[in-house]
Amino acid sequence: MKLLTLNFLTCAIKTCKTNSASFPLHPRDAELEIVEADVNLPFLKNILPRLMWDELRGICTELGLPELPATPPTPADLIQPSSSTPETTDAAPIAEADEEPSQTAKDLHRVLLETCIQEGKLVCGACEHEYAVKEGVANFLLPGHLV
Amino acid sequence: MLPTPSTCHVCFDRVYEPAEDSYLLLDTLSSGSETAFLQDRFGDATSSPPVVLEVGVGSGVVLAFVAANARTIFGRHDVLTLGTDINSFACKAAAQTVRHAVNEREDGRSVFADVVNGDLASAIRPRSIDMFVFNPPYVPAELPDLSRHETYNTMPEGKKATSFEQDSYLLELSYAGGADGMVVTNRMLAQIPGILSADRGIAYVLLCAQNKPDIVKQRIREWGPGWMAETVGSSGKKAGWEKLVIVRIWRSLK
Ligand SMILES: C[S@@+](CC[C@H](N)C(=O)[O-])C[C@H]1O[C@@H](n2cnc3c(N)ncnc32)[C@H](O)[C@@H]1O
Ligand SMILES: [Zn+2]
């Protein structure tokens, strides 16, 4: 499962919902795999406000991945500054389709969409329940008595 | 007519095969009136990407259709799709269906997150979903005995195939809805206000005539001020108990 997915998941136990420690879930004993994909700049720019940035940074640290910047990048940070010569600056703005991803965009893309947990556990910070990840699929089913 | 995603790799002995209910969802979500509604709500290309959750993805045909036709349905490509199913075999099959459809039709511009194995939306972060879709087990029939779930949810140890009993159990999960066919749907309806984003969340839930759709809609409208529930699709051609409707649930923004 992709690290981006962790942005939308929490502990499945009802009584944890009101406990802020139940988000994010913490990967443990994770085997990571990189699944390459094309950088999707329009998506990255638009998803920024929906990312829980501090939590995402924490997950990267826990997984021993390169550190993310302390504050979320702006959409402009994700675009490679144009290498065009001065004469072209007052021409029409570059069409969206021609924008190139900056290194920041590529790094974010790698973390969110290419870094996948193949095996391991996701642990709730509130109740410490462990959810298994097997063959890339996280299992949030609870034994009957916990539901 | 938009193409139906390919599900030819799915083993329908233990994963729900796309049927009239699945196709009604595809037709409704791509109908002129629904695409107009959704584009009005989500079409602004500078707003954040709509996050779509389908619970009970089965083969993945519905989620794949939404992901692969993001542009037609939402008026934008950057839609994020996420799924859950109680059946782990369905989770894997659906992930493959969505990935394939996105690559083929959207050239990777719409983004598929994952399908997780879980009970309804119990593991979804509160207020994080913009569009929710559910084709539930809606047939009035006794619910299967869930105490066998853990054993039946994985390939038997050391075997390459599932047993007949296992397959029957997994298929029962896909259609049996308990009393009035509403036991699973009622549990899901109770979770909807909690998972939808406050400003633009919207849900589509399929019901059959025996679920008593008019009563269900009335109950939703009583959730609180602004909650709306309307039938926005139906397969009324056939009489009888499997007459199906799609109910759109949302909060009026005014
Ligand atoms: C009628 S099938 C729909 C499948 C697919 N969405 C379609 O439209 O073809 C219902 C699906 O819900 C799943 N399901 C049943 N109970 C569930 C639960 N408690 N949590 C998550 N999924 C569930 C079943 O495994 C099945 O895949
Ligand atoms: Zn917990």
UniProtKB/TrEMBL annotation, chain A:
Region (Disordered): 69-103
GO terms, biological process: rRNA (guanine-N7)-methylation; tRNA methylation
Superkingdom of this protein's organism: Eukaryota
Any GO molecular function: protein heterodimerization activity
Pfam hit, one: Trm112p
Family to which the UniProt record says this protein belongs: Belongs to the TRM112 family.
Protein name: Trm112p-domain-containing protein
Automatic annotation (TrEMBL), chain B:
One of the record's GO molecular function terms: protein methyltransferase activity
GO cellular component: eRF1 methyltransferase complex
Keywords: Methyltransferase, S-adenosyl-L-methionine, Transferase
Source organism, top-level taxon: Eukaryota
Matching InterPro entries: Euk-Arch_PrmC-MTase, SAM-dependent_MTases_sf
Biological processes, Gene Ontology terms: methylation
Keyword Membrane recorded: no
Keyword Ligase: no
Entry protein name: Methyltransferase small domain-containing protein
Organism: Decorospora gaudefroyi
